[in-house]
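TICKET: design request
STATUS: open
ATTACHED STRUCTURE:
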């Protein structure tokens, strides 16, 4: 069933359509929540909260073309609200290995598998060490793939500012990856020095 039909049926209270909509977007919502929350347990709770918000405000979504940006905006706002509530307890910068199982890459042999997994952990750790603003613009642009105009609208800043922030965030991420790789005695990912 296409998204337009799902939305129409969800707005009329069709529980099966709602379940199908949740299944279709649960991975994306969880991914957004995980990048803001930093751990799987909080991300699961946040994803549930996000879907409750989406369900309660589904009538505010105009049509299927606007649904995904609207859903991302609700997800982002819920995550920011969560971080504000949790401000007294800072987010840990290290992520337990058990929570990164979903990031493992299938490699043809154990050494390649370990190297790929090590690089992902390094990049994820570097990502978690970015400033909050830089983490957000990397998430919105590089991970979620939102257009620059949508990011500017979402953050309520000029397009030129978005471009410069993304550039600075990429530079900061690259510097953090290089520093972490040097500290660990590993080559930087993708063979860069």
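STATUS: resolved
RESOLUTION: sequence designed for all positions
ATTACHED SEQUENCE:
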């Amino acid at each position: 069933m296409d998204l337009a039909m799902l939305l129409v049926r969800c707005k009329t209270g069709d529980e099966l359509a709602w379940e199908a909509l949740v299944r279709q977007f649960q991975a994306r919502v969880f991914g957004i929540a995980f990048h803001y929350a930093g751990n799987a347990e909080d991300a699961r709770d946040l994803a549930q909260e996000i879907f409750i918000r989406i369900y309660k405000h589904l009538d505010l979504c105009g049509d299927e073309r606007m649904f995904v940006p609207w859903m991302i905006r609700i997800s982002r706002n819920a995550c920011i609200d969560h971080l504000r509530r949790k401000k007294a307890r800072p987010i840990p910068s290290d992520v337990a290995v058990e929570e990164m199982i979903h990031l493992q890459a299938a490699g043809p042999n154990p050494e390649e598998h370990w190297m790929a997994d090590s690089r992902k952990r390094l990049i994820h750790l570097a990502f978690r060490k970015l400033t909050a603003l830089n983490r957000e613009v990397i998430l919105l642009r590089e991970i979620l793939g939102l257009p620059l105009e949508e990011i500017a609208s979402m953050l309520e800043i000029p397009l030129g500012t978005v471009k410069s922030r993304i550039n600075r965030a990429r530079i900061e991420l690259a510097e953090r990856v290089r520093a972490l790789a040097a500290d660990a005695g590993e080559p930087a990912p993708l063979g860069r020095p």
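CLOSING REMARK: Residues 69 and 150 are 8 Å apart (CA to CA). The chain has two domains: 3-85, 97-191.
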